[in-house]
Structures are given as structure tokens and as C-alpha cells.
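2024-03-11 09:14:02 DEBUG pipeline.ingest accepted 1 chain
2024-03-11 09:14:02 DEBUG pipeline.ingest length=300
2024-03-11 09:14:03 DEBUG pipeline.predict start
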Amino acid sequence: MSGKSNTTTDLALLGVLAVLWGASYTFIKIGVETIPPVTFIAARTLIAGGILFAIIRWRGLSMPRDAATWRRFALQACLNSVVPFTLIAAAERSVDAGLATILNSTSPIFTFLLTALITRHEPVTTRKLIGVGAGIIGICFVIGTQSLGGLGHEFWAQLAIVVATISYAGAAIFGRGFKGLDPMLPAAGSMLCGAVILVPLSVLVDQPWTLTPSMASILALLALSVFSTALAFAIYFRLIQTLGSVGTTSQAYLRVPIGVGIGAIFLGESLGPTAWLGMGFVVAGVAAMTIPVRKRVLAS
């Protein structure tokens, strides 16, 4: 009974994570309109890291004190925040939030390939292959043929999002190394390390005290930091331990219709006519890659 309950909870958290990260692209699009990308992401990691650290203290937990763990936190920060956050924020100055969501949704593909070809720490099953295929088909339906025509525009910005996606895939695999730690610890540690890297860079590059951000950008930054970063990363590190790296990154498929839909509602971006059909394939792909297979009990 507890196993079924845990599976239900994990799948519910996977859906919450998809919503939080699906909304992040719209928050970023609004934020970078008046805040430069490096400063925007430096503030994002600083605020989120501070919130997570405060929660850790409130819970009575202690951050690790050994240098080896903090080096791992720093590497996780580079893979999961410093590099991908900054690349996506810079790209969204010219790329629509919906298109950024779609390009970034390929993270399970790269995670699956890295897992199958290099680390081999998770079994490559037929059902996961079907899940990947269903997700790709769903993404194609959601994008629509007209949207695909826009992939040639702003090539370097779109390439930056793909590089960020590969970085996320590496982070999902590397994040397994924190098993045994409370999920809040690597979440907070990686955010704080990201802030240590990015805040000095922001001071040198952008001189943030000279900026005049709009209220919309400030509110987008706060929403992104609190909900789509602090809360999302706490959920993320839990799911890495329970669903595995491929299962956790498979929420990217569900994130596609959510992110595109939010962009359509709040930014006026257009949806393809076959989006609903695509969502069906997307949900099927997530289920195929994340719901554990029940073991048959042989009668004695």
C-alpha cells in the first residue's frame, strides 16, 4: 500500500514540477525585458538559495561541512543552474517562451542517450523507448508544422537553449550522486554555489546598481525564484532519488503544453491547432517512462 502511495505522490509531484518549470519560461521572458540575463539569473539563484537555506535551518538540518560535498554542489550548480539558466535567459531576449519550452523539452532525449551510451545506471527498457517515441510525437503535434518553420530564425539563441538542455541532462545524472542526503541540501547548496559564481560576474558585467527594471520584471523574478526555482528544485532532487534521472526529466514532455499554453495566455503567443492531440501523446510518454512496472507474483 505504501509503495502505491509513494508512486502516486511522485507522479503528482512530477506534474507540479512540470507546471512550475513550464511557467518559468514566461517569467524569464518578462524578466529579461528590463533586467540583463546574467544579473537576472544571479538574483534568481541568490533569492532561491537564501529561501532554501532558511527552510533548512527551520527544519533543524545542517549543511555539509566537508569540501568534497561542496565541490559536488558547485559542479551541480554549473550543470543545473549557472550554465543552462544563463543561456536560456539570454536566448529568450529573441526567442518566444513557447519555442524555448519546446526546445528545452528534449532533455529526456539527451538523458536517455547519456544513460544508454555512457553511464548505463538505469535499464534501457522497451517501455522507456516507447515513452521517448510517444513524447517526440506529442511534441511534434504541439509544435505544429508552422512553428517548425521558425526554427531557422535566431539560430544561435536556439542553439544556446539546446546546449542548456544537454547541461540539464548531465545534471540529472550527476544529481543521483546526492542520494542519501536530504533533497533540500543539494538544492540549497547548488543554488548558493550558483550565486557565488554569478553575483560577482553580474557586478563586473552589468553594474546592477545602474539598472532600472520594470515592476513586471521584478515580480517575474520573484515568482521565478520562489516557485519555479526554490520549490521546484526541492521537488526535483526528491524525484531524482525516487524516479531516477530519466523518469524525472520526462516531465519535460508534460512541460511542453503547459509552457506553450502559459505563453499563449500571458504573452499572446500562438498554439498549434493539434495541441490537444499532442498533449495526449505527451501524457502517455510520461506515464510510460515513469510508472513502475508491477512485478508478477507467482502462485506457490
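2024-03-11 09:14:41 DEBUG pipeline.report The chain has a mean pLDDT of 83.
2024-03-11 09:14:41 DEBUG pipeline.predict end
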